[in-house]
Design goal:
Helix content: 10-25%
Number of helices: 5
Radius of gyration: 47 Å
CATH topology of one domain: RNA Polymerase Alpha Subunit, Chain A, domain 2
Structural class: alpha+beta
Strand content: over 45%
Distance between the termini: 182 Å
CATH architecture of one domain: Beta Complex
């Protein structure tokens, strides 16, 4: 009797399964389609900007071309899933562990799928997913430092001298690029309206991102600034000369001629200068006898004034003993 009941049960179960089978299959398919349709409707899209990491490059090699620092990661998933994701979760990386020779390569990027993105509706797209690189040898060399400055000094001032310390720095980078570099410039130095000498520590400007400085990142520069100088000529009469250290028994007579003293100094100092500020003299200490002598004309002048020339350079005098 129990056996008959089991047979009846399976018979009824079979009847239930196969009864309206077509309708059941259609409903099942509709349920699956509805599930996927709702899933697609609920799927959002978000773009992340992720840092590109470089790993595994041998220490004697370097990438010489410009590489993207970031890549786009386009994510499609449910909003609540996307909201949990950060840029770091993708760990975008360029793995060069297997590269040990110089050449041009196209390398596929590697990345991780965030743990929360494991559903059928999750999708990740990396743009770009490959990077073209040129690998070269790392080389070093010394190059001179060139000053890079701009602006105009205060009126009537000039740069008298510049000093760069050190005059050379050592750089490191890809062989082809380093070989092209003949000098390194300082950062731009503003000298506008300066009128005083100054010393300053400045950065150096590297022309390529993949070239770096060895040991020295800043240098010291010195600008010596001085006032522009004009030239002026003062005219003296011959009796303006003072004859110093002449022995008391002698007297002097001299030829009559004008004396021209050419001086150099700033406009401000020259405007204040007059013949009364200049003391002309000749040294007579070596005269011990009567006669005709050619004595050098010398001058004492104010500070900040330079003598360019005295014309004539010597004066002709006649020395005689005084008569009682």
């Amino acid at each position: 009797m129990k056996k008959m009941d089991n047979k009846g049960f399976y018979k009824n179960l079979k009847k239930i399964f196969y009864e309206n089978l077509n309708i059941k299959i259609i409903c099942f398919i509709l349920a699956i389609v509805t599930y996927f349709f709702i899933g697609v409707l609920q799927r959002n899209e978000k773009t992340f900007s992720c840092n590109l990491k470089l790993i595994g490059l041998k220490d004697y090699l370097i990438i010489s071309n410009e590489m993207p620092s970031t890549v786009k990661v386009i994510v499609k998933d449910k909003k609540k899933t996307i909201d949990k994701i950060t840029e770091e979760d993708f760990n975008i990386r360029l793995d060069l562990s297997n590269f040990d020779t110089t050449d041009n390569y196209s390398v596929k990027l590697k990345w991780d799928i965030p743990k929360s993105m494991k559903s059928f509706f999750s999708a990740v797209e990396i743009v770009p997913d490959k990077v073209n690189i040129t690998i070269e040898k790392v080389v070093e060399k010394n190059v001179p430092v060139i000053l890079n400055y701009f602006g105009n000094l205060e009126h009537n001032y000039k740069i008298a001298k510049t000093i760069v310390n050190p005059q050379e720095v050592r750089i490191q980078g890809p062989e082809k690029i380093v070989n092209k570099i003949t000098y390194i410039e300082t950062e731009k130095i503003n000298i506008n309206k300066e009128k005083m000498s100054f010393r300053r520590e400045v950065n150096l400007h590297l022309p390529y991102n993949n070239v770096k400085l060895i040991n020295k990142e800043k240098i010291e520069v010195y600008f010596e600034i001085s006032e522009l100088k004009d030239v002026s000529t003062l005219i003296f009469k011959q009796d303006a000369i003072n004859f110093l250290s002449l022995k008391s028994q002698f007297k002097i007579s001299q030829e009559k001629s004008s004396i021209y003293v050419k001086v150099k100094g700033s406009k401000t100092e020259l405007e204040k200068l007059s013949p009364s500020n200049i003391f002309l003299f000749s040294d007579c200490s070596e005269i011990n006898t009567e006669g005709i002598f050619n004595l050098k004309i010398e001058a004492n002048i104010p500070q900040n004034i330079e003598i360019v020339s005295i014309s004539p350079e010597k004066i002709k005098i006649t020395v005689e003993e005084k008569k009682n």
